[in-house]
Design goal:
219 residues, alpha/beta, 43% helix
Length: 219
């Protein structure tokens, strides 16, 4: 197993791009893996391709269209509008059932074929919008399950797990990629690059985090 190689779950958004460059500082070889699951903000895949091409990262896009068929949600269906606020006592309709479970499982298969067990994902329990598959307990559980399922020593790393969006911006700044993340990534549910539409929950979280980053670290 090659301990100098890592696979990054890479959407082309703020968090995964920060993780990509975090990985590039720590591993000799980094491979990025993106997923086409019928997302309305499919332009994120173009961002992912552009960033990987620009910075010389081997990149795969895997087809997970079945997820759209199985789990109707506001990120994949044009007839479902994204919740502006999380309904009380419910998950937001932007939650895609099974997404991270499937993403990480498929990445693990590829990781084994590539001769590495190191998988990096940008999930965070501090800023996770209530998504259960972003929790630390889920990642640790899946890590054990993947090891047992393939009899292989996987190690899922989560650099953002215990930090908020302000500190994610700081990490990008410390890595020297703040402007890249600010201008070249796509986090917006409506498919607008950079600062986004400014209205969807993802844009609000990103903007509030950036403003807090400036207050906290750039006075």
């Amino acid at each position: 197993m090659n301990k100098d190689k890592a696979l990054v779950v890479f959407s082309g958004g703020q968090d995964s791009t920060t993780c990509l460059f975090w990985a590039k500082e720590r591993f000799k070889e980094v491979i990025a893996v993106s997923f086409d699951y019928g997302q309305k903000h499919k332009q994120e895949l173009d961002c992912a391709k552009e960033i990987c091409k620009k910075y010389g990262v081997e990149h795969y896009i895997l087809d997970l269209a079945l997820l759209n068929q199985l789990a109707p949600n506001s990120l994949t269906r044009v007839d479902i509008e994204v919740d502006k606020e999380k309904p009380e006592g419910e998950l937001p309709n932007s939650f895609v059932d099974g997404r991270n479970l499937l993403f990480l499982s498929f990445v693990a298969v590829l990781a084994k074929q590539k001769g590495t067990g190191t998988i990096i994902t940008g999930v965070s329990q501090s800023d996770f919008s209530g998504y259960p598959d972003c929790r630390d307990v889920f990642i640790k559980s899946l890590n054990v399950t993947l090891n047992l399922a393939m009899d292989y020593d996987f190690d899922i790393l989560t650099p953002l797990m215990w930090i908020d969006k302000a500190d994610t911006w700081k990490m990008a700044d410390d890595l020297g990629v703040l402007e890249l993340v600010k201008n070249e990534t796509l986090t917006c549910y409506n498919g607008v690059k950079g600062d986004g539409c400014g209205e969807c929950p993802s844009c609000t979280l990103r903007r509030n985090g950036y403003e807090e980053f400036l207050r906290r670290y750039k006075k």
